[in-house]
Amino acid sequence: MKTKLTNLLAICAALALGSLSATVPAEAATAAKQPPRAKAKAKVKARPAKKVEKQAEAQDPDNLLLQSSAVVVQDQSSGDVLFEKNSDAVLPIASITKLMTAMVVLDARLPLNETLSIGLEDVDTLKGTRSRLKVGARLSREDMLLLALMASENRAASALARHYPGGNTAFIEAMNHKAAAIGLKDTRFEDPTGLTAANVSSARDLTKMVAAASHYPLIRELSTTGERTLLIDGRPIAYHNTNMLVRSPASGWEIAVSKTGYIREAGKCLVMQAWLNNRPVVIVLLDSWGKLTRIGDANRIKRWIENASAAGSRPSAALGRRPAG
């Protein structure tokens, strides 16, 4: 009897174990068929940014989705402001400064073929920027202007000011006098390079500065030179324009004046006078932080103006003037 009871208990235990082993794999299989929520969410693809931008532009032709903090687009022939955003905000302008530097040099009618030298005073101790112009390098005043405008060479701009009659102090005074003479109310210069954040202006002021610079044939030529190789101390050095729209013929731009700028306090800046639909248009883009956002903004403006012309309408400043911030 005892043996039978033992056998019966063994059979019951075996049946119970069999039932459990059958249940566990079934639950595991069910879990395997249901992937984690995180994986399910990862399958949802974000809409490409370019498609979103184009769709938004199609919905609202005046919503240009510009990333620069301060913008002015002006028809230079009529003076009409086609678009503005934070146009009165006073901001650091970085190497946009060099347009004024070039105008002051040319106004002085100094010999363009005179040889200037790079001195220790021209080395940037404020930001620590590097230069391929070594101390002692000698170039003509015109080549210094070329490097300052095309390649945004800081030592070249500094040397131009230092070789001005009266030196750097007189040069900065001349810069501020010139600014007042052309009607710049928000603009102040404290150095000829733009390395200091104390060089400030507004987008609205800079349209006047770009327009003034466009009257100098040499500034038009040098600021839109794509690349140039100069012989410096017997060694050829190739320099390129800091504005990729100037360098690339495929960009479709017809640019008459160009200058880029960057320091941390100013963000990335770009000013141009360009021909759009056979009219001179001044574009000012200040305080853009993305690597290519100032270029993207310029291209969006170009497309906006060209689309308006194709539709037989005029670009309107529907967004109006926006306050800073």
Short description:
The chain has 325 residues and is α+β, with helices and mostly antiparallel strands. 41% of the residues lie in helices and 19% in strands. It contains eleven helices and eleven strands.
* Rg measurement, Å: 32 Å
Task: Give, in order, the helices and strands.
Answer: HHHEEEHEEHHHEHHEEHEEEH
Q: Sum up the overall morphology in one term.
A: globular
What share of residues is helical?
40-55%
Could you describe the largest sheet, including whether it forms a barrel?
5 strands, antiparallel
- The low-pLDDT segments are 1-61, 317-325
- Might you state the CATH topology name? Beta-lactamase
Secondary-structure-based class equals alpha+beta
Number of domains: 1
Annotated CATH architecture: 3-Layer(aba) Sandwich
Biggest sheet, strands in spatial order?
A: 2-1-11-10-9
CATH H level, superfamily name: DD-peptidase/beta-lactamase superfamily
Write a structural description.
- With 325 residues, the chain is an alpha+beta fold.
- The protein has one domain: DD-peptidase/beta-lactamase superfamily (Beta-lactamase).
- The protein has helices at residues 2-33, 37-42, 49-59, 97-107, 141-150, 154-162, 167-181, 203-213, 217-223, 244-247, 293-310, and strands at residues 70-75, 81-85, 91-92, 115-117, 138-140, 200-201, 227-232, 235-240, 255-263, 267-276, 279-288.
- It has a five-stranded antiparallel beta sheet with strand order 2-1-11-10-9, with helices on both faces.
- Strand 1 and strand 2 (81-85) form a beta hairpin.
- The longest helix has 32 residues, at 2-33.
- It is globular and about 55 Å long.
- The termini are far apart.
